[in-house]
Amino acid sequence: MKLNTTDPKIYELIQAELKRRREGLEMIPSENHTSLAVLEALGSVLTDKYAEGYPGKRYYGGNQYIDQIEELAIARAKEAFGVPYANVQPYSGSPANIAVYLATCNIGDKVMGQNLPDGGHLTHGWKANLSAKLYNSVPYHVKKDGYIDLEEVQKLAQENRPKLIWCGATAYVREFPFEEMSKIADEVGAYFACDIAHIAGLVIAGAHKSPVNYAHIVTTTTHKTLRGPRGGLIMVTKKGLEKDPELGDKIDKAVFPGGLQGGPHENQIAAIAVALGEALRPEFKEYGKQIVKNARELAGSLTERGVKIVSNGTDNHMIVIDLTPDGPGRGVFLQDALDEAGITVNKNTIPQDPSSPFYPSGVRLGTPAITTRGMKEEEMRTIGDWISQIVSEIKKYRLPELKEEKADYIKNFKDEIRQNKLIGEIKQKVLELCKKFPVYEE
Ligand SMILES: *Cc1c(COP(=O)(O)O)cnc(C)c1O
């Protein structure tokens, strides 16, 4: 029995989401459109199987094919990134990172990561996250120009002598200083972990420097620029195994039975193997390079039209628009206005944000998904023009200072932009553009 007959409600909602993805520009930089092959593996019968343990060492029978699938995923991850060890089981990026703490630190040890409002990830020691509750987190920051403050990183590392230092972020537009930070980590004897969740696909494509020669551990998600299913990978480099020959075993034990998860999701692991197989093909190199070309073109198109962006440009797939010239905390307005036009982005903090993470002053957008659709520089100029027109259109809206007035003001703003003529016209043009670049087609 198929879903459309057994559960038409869920079926229709899935169809509605498919239509939304087809008819809008997906510009959240952490999202992508996977291939139908990835979706097929993800939706396969493999989801039924228990396979606690690792290939050849399972706690359940019947794993002869599962073992081969997981071994293929591991072999492809090693090949794609050039590492001697990979664990493909983490359910997602966050549990992958928590496993790194379990493998390298004792509870209460000092750890360092990029501060969340400066673009860092929750799991790199943000106060609301387990990583700061179980460990003693010392955050580092970015400078006003958007670059990591390496002087501060060095000073904090010398003062605190952390056990683990993270490099990697969720909103960072410049190339990561893997080499510089690895020197700092080595000086104080810390493990150096690079979290390439956002840029993994660019690293494979050679469109961003690889951390593999500098880090002991590399973690990533599989669903961002890597264009696979949601998931996580943990890899140990040659340098990591030289520091601690047991590091791979420690990571395996942290993932299972360390406490993060029970049975691995083998349907997801098969889909990761499929995505890595795609990433190993020559076309993927072109794809990764085009993502960056597109982001640069879009950044140029926005700045030419007077839109302020963090760091005045980008080295990767991401751009952060800085809306403070018209007041703090305005990210929500641009996010909602673009949403109304069929362009999906997310509000985000900017370096030294004068507002808060819930009402940030910027908007983060990226090119991975629209590049998957085949869009190139010409389309980026068009999209840059639309976005800048919408930035101007909402210039007059200011976030109220009083907390109790904010929600009503935003509701009223939404009602107004729903009637806005310019935004309605752009929505129509977005739809026409999307029709020229179909996704999820046979
Ligand atoms: C997205 C992201 C993660 C976590 O990913 P989830 O799969 O959402 O748990 C971890 N680190 C960084 C830097 C990220 O951008």
What does this structure look like?
With about 450 residues, the protein is of the alpha/beta class. The protein folds into 2 domains: about 240 residues, Type I PLP-dependent aspartate aminotransferase-like (Major domain) (Aspartate Aminotransferase, domain 2, 3-Layer(aba) Sandwich), CATH 3.40.640; about 150 residues, Aspartate Aminotransferase, domain 1, CATH 3.90.1150. Helices cover about 45% and strands about 10% of the residues. Helix 3 packs antiparallel against helix 12, helix 13 runs parallel beside helix 16 and helix 16 packs antiparallel against helix 18. The mean pLDDT is about 95. Bound molecules: pyridoxal-5'-phosphate (PLP). Pyridoxal-5'-phosphate binds next to helix 5.
Which key features would you list for this structure?
globular, Aspartate Aminotransferase, domain 2, Aspartate Aminotransferase, domain 1, binds pyridoxal-5'-phosphate, 18 helices, 442 residues
State the gist of this model.
The chain has helices spanning 3-6, 8-23, 36-42, 64-81, 93-104, 130-133, 150-160, 178-188, 200-205, 238-243, 247-255, 266-279, 282-304, 331-340, 368-372, 377-393, 403-418, 421-436; strands at 25-26, 53-54, 57-58, 85-87, 110-114, 136-140, 164-167, 191-195, 217-221, 232-236, 318-322, 343-344, 346-348, 362-366.
